[in-house]
Design brief:
The chain contains three helices and no strands. It has 64 residues and is an all-alpha fold.
Length: 64
């Protein structure tokens, strides 16, 4: 995960998306606040910080 500023930006962006009507990416939203939903999405690797490093998927595409 990136630094705390990247994490903060990710949380802010995702909160904004939820406030604009985006659907949560986790199953059990129950009585959770939107902030709790965003934190759970991050903890469950549903959303990630873009740290600019290549992922395994992009590395495999370059090899082929």
């Amino acid at each position: 995960m990136g630094g705390r500023f990247k994490l903060t930006a990710l949380v802010q962006k995702r909160l904004s998306e939820l406030l604009q009507g985006a659907r949560p990416l986790i199953e059990d939203v129950g009585s959770k606040t939107m902030l709790e939903i965003v934190i759970q999405e991050i903890l469950q690797d549903k959303i990630i910080v873009d740290d600019g490093l290549p992922t395994k998927a992009t590395e495999n595409k370059k090899k082929n």
